[in-house]
Amino acid sequence: MTTTETVYLNLASANDLKKVQAIGDRAGKIVENRPFHDWSDLRRAGMDQDEINAVKSDGVKLGMPSEGPIREPGSGGSGGSPGGNLGRA
Questions:
Q1: Cα–Cα distance between 85 and 52 in angstroms, integer?
Q2: Which of 23, 56, 63, 76 is most open to solvent, judged by the fewest CB atoms within 10 Å of its CB?
Q3: Whether this model's pTM surpasses 0.85
Q4: Domain count of the chain?
Q5: Distance (Å, whole) CA 89 – CA 70
């Protein structure tokens, strides 16, 4: 991705995930298999360890509900939900 904005696996839209070179066409599968609590959970989306490492090398973060900017959906700071809403309104 050619932006300085951090992409969070658990929060980003499929369109934003597609822009990450190491994800590309797997974006939909990633969205379908959320949430990811650990990098190895990406295996549910059909990724092997080398592919997972490539995603990490692209600067992608897991984006657990307690991470990210407070105004970002699913940041854990909205809706009174103790675990956040994982980007769902």
A1: 24
A2: 56
A3: no
A4: 1
A5: 15
